[in-house]
Amino acid sequence: MWLLLQMVGETTPVKRPIDEGWISCIAAGDMDALRDLYDAVSGHIYGFALSLVRDPHDAEDVLQETFLRICRSAADYRPQGKPLAWIFTIVRRLALDKQRQQARTLPVEEVAVEVTDVADSDDRLLLHSLLNRLSDEDRQILILHAAVGLKHREIAVVMEMPLGTVLSRYRRALDRLKTIVKEEELHDQ
Questions:
Q1: How confident is the model at residue 79 (pLDDT cuts 50, 70, 90)?
Q2: What angle do CA 62, 50, 23 make, to 5 degrees?
Q3: Could you say which DSSP state residue 28 is in?
Q4: Cα distance between residue 109 and residue 135, in whole Å
Q5: Which of 162, 141, 138 is nearest to 150 (CA)?
Q6: Mean pLDDT of the chain
Q7: Residue partners of 152: CB distance under 8 A and separation at least 6
Q8: Which domains does the chain carry?
């Protein structure tokens, strides 16, 4: 379990603080602010989108559409100290729209969650395998907290769930991962 938590921890949370002022600058047409925001969060947006849509091309579409939506909606943003929650709410809604669109046209193909910040390919495969054994919502909550660095309250906003539900699902996801790891260790002996 320690290895798993270490691997999840290696998917570093957003390193640079997100300046809420960037969003108002984007609303005024400041391309430097848009570039700064993109540099700060694009990798995390892509990773979260991929965990939802499970297709690299669709995740890239969600990433691009997210920044288009940010540009279009920046003037409507009301500063509340939670710009990441606002951004990841956009990502989640776009990804869910993409999933619904895919469900109407093609069967969804099972693709492992891509975690690119884990250096060792064996560790990456292990992490993929473990995360894919969680429910979609539990995996999303775990990724948003451990990899993106959102607080549980922000995750509650993004996932449109009560805070208590997010907390219990996060705990349940960690407990489930511990159980899976213990089962694997017993199986390997």
A1: confident
A2: 45
A3: T
A4: 16
A5: 141
A6: 80
A7: 145, 163, 166, 167, 170
A8: 8-188 (1.10.1740.10)
